[in-house]
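Example (one chain per record):
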Amino acid sequence: MPKRADIKSILIIGAGPIVIGQACEFDYSGTQATQALKEEGYRVILINSNPATIMTDPGIADATYIEPITVDFIEAIIIKEKPDAILPTVGGQTALNISIELYNNGILDKYNVKLIGAQVSAIERAEDREKFKKAMDDVGIDTAKGGFVHTWEEAKDLIGSMAFPVIIRPSFTLGGTGGSAAYNFEEFKDLVENGLNASPTTEVLIEESLIGWKEFELEVIRDKVDNVIIICSIENIDPMGIHTGDSITVAPAMTLTDKEFQKMRNWAIKCLRVIGVETGGSNVQFAVNQHNGRIIIIEMNPRVSRSSALASKATGYPIAKVATKLAIGYTLDEIPNDITGKTMAAFEPTIDYVVTKVPRFDFEKFPSASGHLGVQMQSVGEVMSIGRTFRESVQKAFRSLEVGLDGLEPKPLAKGDPDLKRARPLNMSALRHGTAFRLLKVYKALLDGESIDAVHRTTGIDPWFLDQIKTIIKISKSDQEIDSYIKNLKFNGFSDKQISRLINSTEIEVRKKRLEKNILPSYKVVDTCSAEFIAKTPYCYSTYNEENEILPIQGKKVIIIGGGPNRIGQGIEFDYCCVQAVFGLQSMGYKTIMVNCNPETVSTDFDLVDRLYFEPVTFEDIMNIVDFEKPIGLLVQFGGQTPLKISRALEKSGAKILGTLPFSIDLAEDREKFGKILDELKISCPQYGTGKTLEEVLNVANRIGYPVLVRPSYVLGGRAMEIVYTKEQLVEYVARSADVTAGHPILIDEFLEDAFEFDVDALCDGKMVHIGGIMQHIEEAGIHSGDSACVLPPYKITTEALEEIIRITKSLALKLNVIGLINLQFAFKDDQVYVLEVNPRASRTVPFVSKATDIPLAKIAAQLTVGASLEEFNLKKWDRKPYVSVKEAVLPFNKFPKESIFLSPEMKSTGEVMGISDTLGQSFLKASISAGNVIPDRGTVFISVNDADKLNAISIARDFQEIGFSILATAGTLKELEQNGIVSNFVYKVGEGRPNVVDEIKNNKINLVINTPLGPQARFDEEAIGRASIQKGIMAVTTLSGAEAVLRAIRLKSKNITVKSIQEYHN
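Predicted structure:
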């Protein structure tokens, strides 16, 4: 059928910021959808609040709105742009939920806008668990026993007819938020209340526990004439009870009988028909009872999901693109398969390899988290690997995680490692709970002689997988001649590092031996058809057998090294930079090769580069590709720390690094050498020192003067940096968080309390420097720049200080021989500019600055690395824009409710949003709404400020009073305010008396908190205040500049919403 002619323009709703449960897979699907629609001649309008995405780049959609994804803002866009249709299926749960809201509020009918890709009735039947259960029961598809409740009373009645344990699943949440398992009546009540609060419709499903059942997923596509195909089957290694996003998964499914698979297939197809999914991709999840073979359907997502991204990358089938074409009227038999160029999209993919996905966790950032996995998703990223066997695939996946593992075996203990004395035999009961690295414990149990049967009984993991792990152990112990032994190990996924330990050698020696004996990887192609047709898109993986399915690319080519799995501190921003680098090189006629292992990203899309290697980002794997392709060079400055960590080793082995050299990058990290450069260039930095013993550490702190910022250079568990105010606190810190062993000094810095902080991104070609943008943080110094809201251009700085920041940036970029990007962080206090940090590479803020200034910094940086000069680009000055941009961090505390919310030098945010408008107040308001912060327009504001802030707080308090707020203040602040004629009410500090400020927050008596701490006690109070604020969803502001921004935002709240596309701002 031809495409729809009644539609000319389509609004795509994006997924918003990266949060746990919804990551950059929707940047990938949204970008694919936008390109597919533009290819067909439609005008594409996009709304997304996330600046770190490729999809919000001005060149992707025709009109891009970086605005809050709320009903009011979308209505304003609809009034202005008059789209004919909305595509809600490529923006995750965010887009589905808001589309339902638009429908319920009558906005779709009011403006005659159609939904394409999924109808409201289908979304509601799939997402509303009660309707879904009824629809399945009506057609004879088994579901779990249970029922729906909307109040605690209903839950109490229902549980009377059920046996514990039970699973509690809130409706309409993402990543299983609010989901839990209750094992007794006592915890049942709290967990039900929690679930009802998490569900936007206060509805919770309570059902029989399926914990221990096997879990499977089918990725399915259906068109409007009822053609249906299964893209791929996915099996969770972890049994039910662990969210599928936190499970290790394998494609295709390994342990299903043909009969079980056919039943699931038939049920999945029937499910799509009954729910009414007419055009697009869906993910259908099943559970199988290991003891009696009973199969039930768990749920289905009527949209492109996290698993769709995995299935796309696993098979090479572009699900988001095909789903989008179906939404505009095509059928599966009319859409060509881009990979083969010979088959149609109705052709089911077949694969002749095994794909493994392993999630990446960052529990060390959240000390309050138990580390136990459950039905609520907690992982922050994932890796995917491809091998000819499960053994090869799982080993490659584990070494892709970047957590110090070289394959599927526990971390080797280093000589002198403090963990050596703690090493003890594995307790089998430790396997009972799902944890981030349970498979390593399984490996250890089997290595220690436990039987497959015993491990299966304890974990519920299918014996087939356990047998594969046991085979890996057997192979490592086999008694063969050395060359055959190495060949066999490589065939089974062992890394050179693993082999070096087995044969008592080094990684470099093993590599040398392999090259001598010609034990080299061959590269296979992901082609959707098991080599039945020749693939047009070279999307490859390595394995160790004889035949290469590809030849090296001809022409001048560059390898871009990707950023590996998302994690806190290194996310989608670096993927954005890698993709921009590809665009830059392609525009200069270079062939581009991407190496990455993250299935959620645009960088691993099959049609972005000339060749994609889906491989671990390790020294060994990159060097294998360098040996095979012989590129003119490698780009390492765009993928965050991942490529930088291996850049020296790559250079030593003969790979040419383009742009800033590893030597310069290391120089910026070396305190002593870098300190000399700063002295030479007359640049100030906070005083610093290092100590290896407690005595040395205390001496340095005394010399510098408290407070100090301390961090171990060798970090245990990532709980790295802390602000320390007293000698006692420092002694306690050293004892608690750093094993001060030989060679692992502690770094001590002067802490500039109450300073303003700035971030600069710049470009350098070795001769000239272009300032990309200077941002000022709203939060005080001492909060990680990734967690701080920042404003471009700065809002409060003298001309002299700004000129000094520019001078320092230029002189350091030239001194470090930067070719490409550099990021610097500054503090400004008492009319003095201090350099805090210098990173000669792409930074987290590059996408934000690029969008705010309309200069694609990463794209230009890549061109500089291959010889372009800044003069050629004729770049405009960064600060000549008549608008203000604000970046705000998005924090995951709803997943870790016991966590201290006091932001610190340790980064905790998972994502970011952007607000852009003509004024600071409006931009801050938009960014706050997008980040999920509630800015009140009336009520009571609590104010408690440090002595240095008291004078400046008076005008802020008066402004709050004038716009109708009541004021609550602690003794010192109250006295200052009343002396200046501002009526306030008294409240105790924490620990002074009751009811104190925390009590009043919990009693819903406070609507906004302004609390600027100084010193250790104030920071302790702030922690308690902050935690209570998070639990109540109240905004807590910790700086006066933040309070001023909030005040501006409140004044503008009542103004009519105005929206402008990023293209309009730029022009």
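Caption: Residues 416-423, 714-719, 738-743 have pLDDT under 50 and may be disordered.
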